[in-house]
Design goal:
about 210 residues, alpha+beta, Arc Repressor Mutant, subunit A, ADP-ribosylation fold, 9 strands
Length: about 210
């Protein structure tokens, strides 16, 4: 499978497993699983010029295995996305060994309201949190928000889980929650050793 084919197949996998299985007349179970054989047949039928000649179930599994972020999971003859859903599913992801702190990027414009009402999932089914400050900054700069200089919030996940909120591990560095209440939030200051080197790098890039 060539790089271009793998990237195109990855985009279709995201569309089906995260957003719109119905577009390909596929059924997703309550935990987000889709049958791989049915997925292959649907793609070959709906996009025969792109996938009809070569696509097989092992290509779906190869995309999952090559994804360094752990965005997808194969179980038997089914596949699902581990995070990024806009469709409602019931998560059965791991909830043990959650780090005591996780991180979330936001804009300066959104900071006040987030500190007032907490973090809501927006157009996704769950709030997406990052394992490290660097990963949260990357999500803010390269993800949907496209922030040049994201503000990073630290979430006291130890306290969250102690009081009964659930945090799920999804992928290699992404964690999910239904909502994050404001009492668990604290801003990571720009002088913080975890953030200061990133800000210095962004300032250098702006000067170039």
């Amino acid at each position: 499978m060539r790089t271009g084919e793998r990237e195109t197949l990855g985009r279709r996998l995201a569309r089906v497993c995260r957003h719109d299985p119905g577009r390909y007349n596929l059924e997703m179970d309550i935990n987000g699983w889709v049958d791989i054989r049915e997925l292959v047949d649907a793609l070959r039928e709906k996009e025969s010029r792109r996938f009809g000649r070569w696509l097989r179930p092992h290509h779906i599994k190869a995309v999952v295995e090559c994804d360094a972020k752990g965005r997808y999971e194969v179980r038997g003859n089914t596949v699902r996305a581990t995070y990024g859903h806009t469709v409602e599913i019931e998560l059965d992801l791991p909830t043990d060994n959650i780090p005591p702190s996780l991180f979330y990027p936001c804009s300066d414009e959104d900071l006040e309201i987030i500190m007032d009402i907490g973090i809501l999932p927006g157009n996704r089914s769950h709030v997406h949190l990052s394992r490290t400050v660097a990963k949260a900054a990357e999500a803010g700069r390269l993800g949907g928000q496209q922030l040049k200089r994201p503000i990073i919030l630290e979430i006291d996940t130890a306290q969250m889980t102690a009081t009964g909120d659930t945090v799920w591990k999804a992928g290699t560095a992404v964690y999910l929650a239904e909502k994050v209440e404001p009492q668990y939030l604290d801003r990571v200051e720009e002088e913080d050793d975890r953030l200061a080197p990133l800000i210095s790098k962004w300032e250098q890039e702006e000067e170039e």
